[in-house]
Design goal:
alpha/beta; 16% strand; six-stranded mixed sheet
Length: 282
């Protein structure tokens, strides 16, 4: 069995990022690739990238980011909200890519088995500054700081009345599905947005945390027996541990960000190893 690898925030509208994605190859023909959102804003770019990766990796699992859900004025596909998400799901199914609407696949490498659960959860503005009690007050602070996410203009929640209402619906549906996973089976939780608040503490602009997740998932890594959590969105690749569970931020990010990093840009992060440890058994 190959490794369980992950990457996110490919943003292939940027030509430099497109070239990075074009160069991605598995180390083993049996490697799985988890793609934790923000592949592209335009549907044709989204299909190109995931189709290419699906041709190369044994299995590709996708969790949507906020950028895929934008209705960008330059994108010929002008679907909004839930309809846009469902359209992307059907495109993925046509490519053979696993989505949050599909049965959770079980990866059976040496560090498995684990149920791989791609999550679509959004955010509900509960990652607020200390002492700020309401969404309205937090948004005012963000506006005063000049930090307002483009989601406020391009990510439409239709038919829900708000993004937080859509988030609540996704939380309820996803929680029920995760609770139905067999008790003896650990999970790998794949979300574009971090499941815990801790990763947002290092943001250069802390006001941006409003658009980065929900307090409702703070204990999901424990409740649902996570062997690992994968996320992106922040463009701050790192590994932290919470209650002994590794949380991997696996983003590529924009060229101006990854251009100054050491190492090979866009190299997927190994989440679990498919090979037995030296001297171990498969």
């Amino acid at each position: 069995m190959g490794d369980l690898l992950a990457i996110s925030d490919l943003h292939v509208r940027y030509e430099d990022n497109r070239q990075v994605v074009n160069g991605l190859r598995p180390g083993n023909a049996d490697d799985w690739l988890l793609v934790a959102g923000d592949v592209a804003e335009h549907v044709d770019d989204f299909v190109w990238a995931l189709g290419l990766l699906r041709d190369r990796f044994a299995k590709v699992v996708w969790a949507p980011g906020n950028h895929e859900l934008w209705t960008h004025p330059a994108d010929p596909v002008q679907l909004r909200g839930e309809r846009r998400y469902r359209h992307l799901v059907e495109l993925c199914r046509g490519l053979g890519v696993v989505t949050p609407e599909d049965p959770y696949p079980v990866w059976r490498g040496a560090q498995g088995p684990v149920a791989v659960a791609p999550l679509f959860l959004l955010y509900d503005y509960t990652f607020r500054p200390a002492g700020v009690r309401t969404k309205a007050a937090a948004l005012r602070l963000a506006e005063e700081a000049g930090v307002v996410c483009t989601d406020e203009y391009l990510l439409h929640p239709d038919p829900y009345p708000s993004r937080e209402a859509w988030c609540r619906a996704r939380l309820a549906e996803t929680e029920a599905r995760l609770a139905a996973v067999a008790d003896e089976l650990p999970t790998v939780l794949v979300s574009h947005f971090p499941l815990i608040r801790q990763p947002t503490r290092v943001l250069r602009h802390p006001e941006f945390a409003l658009w980065c997740g929900t307090e409702a998932t703070a204990d999901w890594h424990r409740r649902f027996r996570a062997a690992a959590v994968v996320y992106g969105h922040l463009h701050i690749p790192r590994l932290i541990h919470q209650h002994g569970v590794p949380h991997h931020e696996v983003s590529l990010g924009y060229p101006r960000e990854w251009g100054g990093r050491q190492g090979t840009p866009g190299r997927p992060v190994r989440i679990l190893s498919g090979a037995p440890a030296a001297g171990g058994k498969a």
